[in-house]
Amino acid sequence: EDQVTQSPEALRLQEGESSSLNCSYTVSGLRGLFWYRQDPGKGPEFLFTLYSAGEEKEKERLKATLTKKESFLHITAPKPEDSATYLCAVQRPGYGGSQGNLIFGKGTKLSVKP
Amino acid sequence: NAGVTQTPKFRILKIGQSMTLQCTQDMNHNYMYWYRQDPGMGLKLIYYSVGAGITDKGEVPNGYNVSRSTTEDFPLRLELAAPSQTSVYFCASSSTGMGPEAFFGQGTRLTVV
């Protein structure tokens, strides 16, 4: 069965304390892996897309990497404004039209204290 | 610069009542989606549309209906509300299917009592 598992469920960091979030997946026919940020009371906001093992993407303090079985979202020197829930999703053929569907993980809730 | 607009933001329904969740996008996107997000769970696809007049079931369609009479609007209908439909509902739209180009609305928090 296709599934996406994110860990940890929650992560508390001090401002400036770097860490990583994990997204492991078992999917047939992976078309892409996506990271989203979700603030309380808001819809998910796109961060990164990764398509092949070894690929890396960076944006400000965030860096996403991909292997054949998992993806990491590295957060370097986080600030309080990085506090949010980070969602991982994998794209595979199926529901959603020709572009396939996204299977979402449950998310990691990140809190960064000043 | 509205993007994807969902109404209402909050709603409480009694068991057996019906309601329509509204979703409108002003980006001329062909693809539109309805997801539900239960506490501590990943988003699940309910229904989707690849263009006006075309809709199809997603992963969890039971208890819901949709229509797509215009490119802009994609309402989600709940018939005979049940407690299991308590959730946060998100509408999304895209020009190329789910992925980096997809934009989500702010969500509708629905409670069925």
3D architecture notes:
The complex is a heterodimer of chains A (114) and B (113). With 114 residues, chain A is an all-beta fold. Chain A contains no helices and 11 strands. Chain A has strands at 3-7, 10-14, 19-26, 32-38, 45-50, 56-59, 62-66, 70-75, 84-92, 101-104, 108-113. In chain A, the strands form 2 sheets. In chain A, strands 2, 4, 5, 9, 10 and 11 form a 6-stranded mixed sheet that branches. In chain A, strands 1-3-8-7-6 form a 5-stranded antiparallel sheet, with no helix packed on it. In chain A, strand 9 and strand 10 (101-104) form a beta hairpin. The termini of chain A are far apart. Chain B is 0% helix and 49% strand. The N and C termini of chain B lie far apart (36 Å). Chain B has strands at residues 4-7, 10-13, 19-25, 31-37, 44-51, 54-57, 64-66, 76-78, 87-94, 103-104, 108-112. Chain B contains no helices and 11 strands. Chain B has one domain (4-112): Immunoglobulin-like (Sandwich). Chain A binds chain B through residues 4, 32, 34, 41-46, 49, 87, 89, 91, 95-107, and chain B through 4, 31, 33, 40-45, 48, 50, 56-59, 90, 92, 96-102, 104-107.
Which structural traits does this protein have?
heterodimer; A: mainly beta; Immunoglobulin-like; six-stranded mixed beta sheet; five-stranded antiparallel beta sheet; globular; B: 113 residues; mainly beta; seven-stranded mixed beta sheet; 49% strand
